[in-house]
Amino acid sequence: MKTPIVLISGYLGSGKTTLVKHLLATTDKKIAVIMNEFGDIGIDTPTIEGSHIIVKELLEGCVCCSLTGELEAALEEMIAQYKPETVLIETTGIAEPDNIIVTLRDELSTIRLDTVITVVDADTMIRFPHISTSAEIQLRSADVLVVNKTDLVTAEQLAKVHDRITTLNNRAQLMDAVYCQVDTDILLSIEAAHHFTGIHHTHRPTLEATTIHLPALNTAQLKSILHALSPHIFRAKGLLQIDGKAQLLNYVAGRVSQENTTHATGQFILIGTNTAKTKKRIEDLLHTDPQTK
């Protein structure tokens, strides 16, 4: 019997991990999760591990290109050892799912790809209307399009988002959501005829990732660091100590969210362009701030 795979894609900060957390919290299925991180650390893995869940990280690359072999090996190992009812694969925000679809279809006989879900950030699509090549492939590849963060846009703006994405893919099922609160039973029961089944092509990411370790921060220091992210950093996230509390911090194109978590590692990952320059800028800020000494 083949193990069903649900592939979750979406651009940086769209809410992929939020969707994974929601699916895990609302099903009693035995689930295995593969988390693909573009950077050299996994920020989100500690926040989703649980008693009926096994998580495998694939770091420093994309499973659509440089980590294809690692993805195949991870799937084979998890299925053989853990025998999950379903495997969720969360790609990086810049991954191109069509390559992954080909790999899963052609290279592995023990699995079947049930659904390709692409999470769309409605707010970012309105504020930054240009759709990159990778984002377009993510949209065209989807069997289900979860339009997330609908609470951050007006009804008129949401209609514009629907028009744009259905122009690229009018076959996918649309689901509007806030914090990716969608029907788990539907998402985990769809077996789709996948729309985008071409051949492998070269994927050359134009973004880069850098990790910085941050000390315990107060609110003023955090604001200075977030200000330093512009204009080069599109996405950042970390498990940070802020005002004495462990926080999972997410930054997407100038919008910031924080939620309480159980521990803070101080690791903060920057994704964008000129990330080393931004890292140096943050380090200089901390060095000159007497409150961090």
Summary tags:
293 residues; alpha/beta; Rossmann fold; Hypothetical Protein Yjia, Chain: A,domain 2; 2 domains; 7-stranded parallel β-sheet; 5-stranded antiparallel β-sheet; 12 strands; 33% helix; 28% strand; globular
Could you walk me through the main structural features you see in this protein, from its secondary elements to its overall organization?
The protein contains 10 helices and 12 strands. The chain has 293 residues and is α/β, with parallel strands linked by helices. It has 2 domains: 185 residues, 3-Layer(aba) Sandwich (Rossmann fold); 85 residues, CobW-like, C-terminal domain (Hypothetical Protein Yjia, Chain: A,domain 2, 2-Layer Sandwich), CATH 3.30.1220.10. The strands form 2 sheets. It has a 7-stranded parallel β-sheet, sandwiched between helices. The protein has a 5-stranded antiparallel β-sheet with strand order 8-12-9-10-11, with helices on one face. The radius of gyration is 19 Å and the shape is globular.
Question: In a nutshell, what does this entry contain?
Answer:
With 293 residues, the protein is of the alpha/beta class. It has 2 domains: 185 residues, Rossmann fold; 85 residues, CobW-like, C-terminal domain (Hypothetical Protein Yjia, Chain: A,domain 2, 2-Layer Sandwich).
